[in-house]
Design brief:
The protein is globular. It has an eight-stranded mixed beta sheet with strand order 3-2-1-4-5-7-6-8, with helices on both faces. The protein has 294 residues and is of the alpha/beta class. The chain contains ten helices and eight strands.
Amino acid sequence: MFDAESRAKPVIKWAGGKSSLMDRMVPCFPSRFGRYFEPFLGGAAVFLSLSEPVAAFVNDRNPEIYRLYLVLRDYPRPLMKLLDRYAAKYSEEFYYRLRAQKPIDPVRRAARTIFLNKTGYNGLFRLNSSGVFNVPFGKRVRCPRLYDEANILAVSERLRRARLTNWDFEKVIDRAGPGDFVYCDPPYEPLSPTSSFNSYCAGGFSRDEQARLKVACERAAARGAFIAVSNSAAPFILDLYRDWQIYRILARRSINSKGTQRGAIHEVLAIRPGRPRRAASRTRSVRTAIPATV
């Protein structure tokens, strides 16, 4: 039910995006399922790779990302028209002037998000503790391509067939039941104090939140939903999901403030097949997905 060559692709660059990992992740997913749930939509690579029109429930707690997808769904052509105007104004001065703005109009707000994401340093989406986007200018000589028209329209079509919300992840997961598939791609547990990319939303994502996510997923699995959770291979995560099936996947980190640290790293995909809790196995399984290429 997934197709890595789907015509719909992510519209924004996203730290930890899954586009390049789909061929290694899909074999771990169920081949058939009822409804699809994704409580941390982010760049939406997995959702956009759905090859069949299943009922989808997608969500992102970050208000900027949520509003971006609302505009992509409802106003794709006005959005592209405004992005063309922004591209014509491309400069460092315009970047910082736009970054300082807080537009109320939804199309202007969405265009601002895409422009800053595409032209900021290294494609980061990062908020400070006050919820302010603080990525510096990318210093490219020319404005990069801000969008692909056919892709924007394909993404818009996909979103019109899904339910899009801005809820806490637990509320989304609690709607999943027998035969459903829940894929979670939360902010990753940092591998080191300087490697965190979990500031995509003001307040970050704590270890308490990681633990709350696992509990919500286990409730859904007990109801019969199939659960897959991506995260870093940090010791805390390996211990937290020690009673799940854990697949190690080799990935290339493409977003990092230090070029020397954009290399190959291991991520984990933790799997919990849907089944009654009393039948769940307590055996730890650590595996490697399809041999990864870097």
